[in-house]
User: Fold these one by one.
Assistant:
Number 1:
Amino acid sequence: MADDASTVPVTVLVPGVLRAECGGESTLTLRSGPTLGALLDQLGATHPRLHRRIRSERSEIRRYVNVYVDGEDCRLTGVLTTPLRAGAEVQILPSVAGG
Amino acid sequence: MSHILCIGTEKGLFTARSEDDRKTWEIGPPQFQMTNVYAVGVDKRSSTTRLLASVTSSHFGPSVAVSDDLGATWSEPDEPPLAFPDSAGVALVRVWQFAASPTAAGVVYAGTQPSALFKSTDGGESYDLVPGLWNHPHRPEWGAGFGGQAIHTVLPHPSDPDRLLVAMSTGGVYRSTDAGESWSPANKGIKAYFFPDPWPEFGQCVHKVARDAGDPERLYAQNHHGVYRSDNGGDSWESIADGLPTDFGFTMVAHPSKPGVVYTFPIEADGSRYPPDFRCRVYRSTDAGAAWEVLQNGLPPNDFYPVVLRDAMCTDDAAVTGVYFGTRSGEVFGSADEGDSWSMIAEHLPDVLCVRAFQV
């Protein structure tokens, strides 16, 4: 994505269980449009295997995946419309589920 | 000659291997850990045996992986190998069944939850929705069983590439005679006791359908109460439950080469999901369901409570056919002599969801 005024730099924190889907990286630094939805779309283009673990083909965040934007649960801040500031930290975490 | 037994469980895929004609087995560590493996496919149409695995993480969703080295390593594409198009308005929950076409190279079908049929032309690496079934006018009325709404049976015709049969819970049996372009229900004679009209055109909760080894028009069905046979490719069904201790269960497995031979593992009832009399017993018919014999030599003689799920029973392709089943309490039993005698292959595994066996 172009480095222009419509994009913001974002850091994505990848949980250990998903790092194999992005070359073993624990942190991804990229630019995206200024919403969480734009960031996830960007991930779909640059890291499709990681992206499909987070979202279904309907672009919905999977039920037992939590995404925090600057420490706030995105489900409480507008989900895909959650705004991203320049330098935002987006953390992906599996929820407490299963056994 | 080696024998391979793939065991799909609630917590991964286990692969057992026997080098002594199925007398002893070595079981490898779980692969796809913490995923449920509802389906394994074995495609032996080319010189390289290809395995397909339906793997679903409760956190990270479903996928399909393939292995061309008998399960030593697996691969997945970057893009979802199997996904609904935007127009469908739903997301894939999981794949319940793989079926390699016996008549079309590279073609693999997948039955899914929600109930849909997908087709691959690249050996099972990527799939497209079969729109003819998805757009069927009955689809809004198809329901969901306790395990979810799914197509769990896919039977391509052994010699006619245009003919396909699927079964779903709930919805029943549907057939196509034009390579999946159009579909018709095929449930005449199968009871749906849970409806005010127990003999509907569709809506039955068929649990599994198997095709006879000798006559492709002969089919066997385990229903949600009711065990049936069709001698006309599904035009009509008649009960073959007489001789079984109950008419409930999930499994129905046809012998791969002997006409008229079929196996099942009955369960007491819908509302009493234990083996009849709390005994671990397989039933076999050698006359297409006219009579049934109990098989229990080597099976646990004492109280036994777990059930066998619809894909947790299978045969292999050895010269003397092996029969296998796994339980929801993580035991796997096998017979190297067509069911006459049994031994335990594994215990203390997670819930067994499917088994598939073959020789290499």
Note: The first strand of chain A starts at residue 8 and ends at 13.
Number 2:
Amino acid sequence: MTQSLTLENISAHYGTTQVLEDLSLHIAEGELVSLLGSSGCGKTTTLRLVAGFLEPTAGAIRLGDRDLTRLPAHARDIGLVFQTYALFPHLSVRDNVGFGLKQRKLSGAERTKRVDAMIERVGLGELADRHPANLSGGQRQRVALARALVIDPPLLMFDEPLSNLDAKLRVDMRVEIRRLQQANGTTALYVTHDQEEAFSISDRVAIMKGGRIMQLDTPEVLYSQPASAFVANFVGFDNMIEMEAVAEAGDAVRAQIKGGSMIELAKEQFTVPSKKFIFAARPEGLSVAPADTIGGIPATLGMRTYIGRAYQYHCETAGGTVTANGPQATPFNSGSTAMLVPQPDQCCLLPVEP
Amino acid sequence: MSNRLRAWLIATPAILLVFIFLGLPVLATFVTTFGDPKGPFATYSAFFNSRFRMTVLWRTMEVALITTIISVAIGFVTAWVVARMPSRIKSLLIIAAVFPLLTGVVVRSFAWLVILGKNGILNGFLLKIGVIAEPLSMLYTQGSVIVAMVYLFVPLMILTLVGVLEGIPQDMTDAAASLGATPAAAFRQVVLPMAVPGLIVGAVLVFTGSFTSYATPQLLGGERQMMMGTFLYQRAMVTFDWVGASTIAAVMVVVTLTTVLIMSKVARKLNPMAG
Amino acid sequence: MKTRIHPVLIVITILTFLFLLGPLVVIIGSALSDTTYLTFPPQGLTLHWFTNIFEISAFTRTMGTSFMLAIGGTTLSMLIGIPAAYALARYRVELPAFLGNVFVLPILIPEIVLGFSLMKSLASGFGLPIMAALLIGHALIVLPYTVRVVGASLNSFDFSIEEAAVSLGCPRLKAFFIVVLPNIRAGIIAGFILAFITSLNDVSISIFLTGPGVSTLPIQLLAHMEQFFDPTIASVSVLLMGVTVAVMAVVERTLGLTFLTK
């Protein structure tokens, strides 16, 4: 009995500070949406509002056709996995997992059946009688997951659930979370500051900043077509060069690099958003080539570092300092001039922000 | 010099202070109890066969136990409310609890002498409003000792429990709520069990403190409500019966240490972190 | 969002704090009363009873003794306790775990038993002067406070700072004084002041160790109360409460009063 989640024009304040501004979000049934952003962007506040630990100053929260806005937290029926796991230290794994069912006044036999099945399902069968203090980080994470899943909630929420695990376990657990969420078809809201984690696990990702959603889309679209400089920067477009479209040249647009030379951008690969625009590229989106190459951004190479598979250069261009990658086979010397050739699939054009 | 040797050397003066001026004298007191000319255990059998001494022991236990129960009850409720107050009010309340705690036992017991005395404030007030015609004798009763003891130990209990309750992360009650527990259920099933070990530690402090107190029973209980502390002093400094006094001392040490050992074992067993 | 608190619990809390502070207000009130007996609310106001304190030599003398004893005993326990706390915090691996409990013994053994035992062994057995016995007794009962409070400061001290000083050529002992001590200053001040007030208010040890000609203020008060019942005692009590206020101010400025809830 999974349900969709709708946030309508939510605003929230801590005292007089506004932390969320007119935020709207719809998560379809069975969909997993991540809120992604650095600390203070409002992602955790959003989750705590939905959970009922905070009250919005304006707006409405709906789960299916139930209005949650003024409902106390314990009546909301949402499975929540905490960043700290928040396992009850005085209860065994079994009692932790059974806590929610006990609140729902389920009969003992039914409760045992469901709890045992869930503990089996997350692979903790052997450890059911242990206390949280005697579990490893990954095992605690599984208990937290089982505890939230066993109440069969219409909505699951995760508050940076993997941030306390080491890198290897983090990858395993996110696959596990995705598997369990999809198997149940439960709607899910996932909060994280880790871009890779958000992209790998989500149907859609909302990138947040200053209490607002900057862009909400599938990971693929966000990765290749960010809508703003902020999002572009967030997904790794480290180089931003201001340009101005000056003329059409057949199936290309001639653009002038701020304070420098011309470059031709093929229309098939680039859509110029406005006369003045920003050319954004990942380091691998600018390929370092000999200075006599045609079609690129002239640069003077600075410091060279080896990053495995490629060399990375700090380069001076007319449009500012950029980072570009060069082939491993032919290293360039620091101080030499070169041409930075755009690789269209790792570059994008953005409107200049007011 | 190895770190181990260095560590021991640095700690030595303190170890010596405790060993020479606490270990040896207390040991000597125990040794004294076996020096009765009538046999090594004569003084103990005299103690446990004397109706008067046993009355003092049971009275002391009773007063300590009642004091503990009342202090825990008042302290827990108050600490729970204090812990939930906005931080400015909370710090004011903590100041209000620390102030009596740091004020001396004599001063605090004296206050109750003024309040409960025959010509005291409480009698004056009750006479004025006409509830009683004659002043009540409230001093030198078990009740007066218990009131003053509770007064002595409630601040300690409040401060201990505020610490314990604040140590329970907000995430715990949030988690309980997200799983459908009403505030009352979350309190019963999560907050209370997690607070129990700290509660026991506080209760042991109150029990041993009131069991071994001297000034309060001396001032508010007098001869009529003799307790172990006042009894020890009387035997040692009034009748100069040092063997008898040592026996009382030994019984006090055994009762306190047993209480501490048993209860800290219970607390450890109930400690959620131990598993 | 804070959970709502049941009004009954709020009422209990208010009553508790009235219970805690009321008696102290009574003392202050009766110290100001213009009568020769203790009464509250005061009948007419006077400061006569405060000046009267200084006309009773037993009070002025024991007040001096108590302050000297508190300062001396606390200093002695600091000199011994700070190194012990340092050893416990710095050499956690090298020292056995039970050692920490050794310094808590003066709290674990009933104070009155300790007082009696010290009297029996020191004053009577070895004929130690009363003042010396008192000093040792007080140093002993405040030792747990000094070790614990200083220890709390040391536990949050990063010892790699000390190692940094040594690696820069500073001798170990000097490093302790110029690097460690300044960083645990708050703990030392708070520990000193808490030990001081504990010693100043002590009854159970002092009652056995005071003797002819030497007494402390609380013991003198106790004796006075059993014979006289005039507002002078109340005014001495008010003075002692003043000391408490000063102590609280110092603790608040160093570790913060919430330290006492830990």
Note: Chain C touches chain B through 88 residues (CB under 8 Å).
